[in-house]
Amino acid sequence: MIRFEGVSKRFPGAGRAAVEALDLVVPEGSVCALIGPSGCGKSTTLRMVNRLVEPDRGRVLVGGADVARGDPVLLRRRIGYVLQGVGLFPHRSVADNIATVPGLLGWTRARIADRVEAMLDLVGLDPAAYRHRRPHELSGGQRQRVGVARALAADPPILLMDEPFGAVDPVARDRLQVEIGAILRRLGKTVLIVTHDIDEAMRMGTRVVLMREGRIVQADTPERILAHPADADVAEFVGQDRALRRLALISAGTLAVPGAAPDAPTIASEASLRDALALLLATGGERLAITGDGSPAHLTLAAIRARAAQASD
Ligand SMILES: Nc1ncnc2c1ncn2[C@@H]1O[C@H](COP(=O)(O)OP(=O)(O)O)[C@@H](O)[C@H]1O
Ligand SMILES: [Mg+2]
Predict the structure, then answer these.
(1) Substitution candidate for ligand 1 out of 43, 45, 84 with most atoms within 8 A of CB
(2) 46 lines ligand 1 (CB under 6 A)
(3) What are the sequence ranges of the domains in the chain?
(4) How far does residue 85's CA lie from ligand 1's centre (Å)?
(5) For a FRET experiment, which of 91, 111, 147, 242 has its CA 20 to 30 Å from that of 285?
(6) Which residue pairs, CB below 8 angstroms and at least 24 apart, start in 222-230?
(7) CATH classification for the domain delimited by 2-241, as one of 3.40.228.10, 3.50.50.60, 3.40.190.10, 3.40.50.300
(8) Which residue CA neighbors atom 18 of ligand 1 most closely?
(9) Dist. CA 19 → ligand 1 center (Å)
(10) pTM of the full predicted structure?
């Protein structure tokens, strides 16, 4: 768990505080997405967890302990950190990069080699093909996968991510958000992720925290923020197409009704209702057959329409 208690930070010479009286709890195993306009204090908040920034007032607790009391170097070894587009050692192989913290912790060579292999598998890179490459031989998306593998290598309970996919092209970014989000939830990591991309926040966060001028404006589940924005500014920030964003958060399987739809296009049960709607619009149909749920099932355009219209809370 990460807990902020009345945390404030004003940089020398700054007119206003970067972060002001911030109270926030990130429960064990949850993914908290900090979102808001540039300069609103997201990165400062994140960097107070691993003590790259020290607060002027208040406390930050990790696993119940005040981070200000321990050795910052030891603290950082227990916290994975993923940054936008940087952080990999350019002259070291992918394997050596992933081995950084395990090496510092004195693991044996054999254990490190096993771990590197497992981490590459985890993030979807074939170990045989990628282990010996250098960062410049990877695409932007692959580099960010290695960054995540490196951050997770020593199995830290906490992961901090600052605009992790900001430098990646949009197609790769979509895949990374979905895949890495699923991995983090499966591993049960406690994650604080900073982003200015509303789709990224909604896809990856179990909770979304909206910040403005150093303060929290709204903190809630993605579904409830989309359904009930705290004010007009939040509503504008989360966008005009809120109904569609909500559909992106619901799986097709939730609207499944029993019965085969033999001639209809198929969609996976875990695909989103937004994808289902896109497929219906593209094919001009009224029904989709759902795969992956065992017994035959389908869903209808009418059911998606009804769901989109419904206030979700
Ligand atoms: N190291 C620093 N020194 C001085 N001012 C800083 C420093 N880091 C951030 N700031 C200022 O603090 C405010 C919040 O910055 P930041 O937390 O980086 O915002 P965000 O990540 O939301 O874009 C901004 O006004 C920024 O200019
Ligand atoms: Mg930032």
Answers:
(1) 43
(2) no
(3) 2-241, 246-309
(4) 19
(5) 242
(6) 222/249, 223/249, 223/312, 223/313, 224/312, 224/313, 226/202, 226/312, 227/311, 227/312, 227/313, 228/313
(7) 3.40.50.300
(8) 43
(9) 9
(10) 0.82
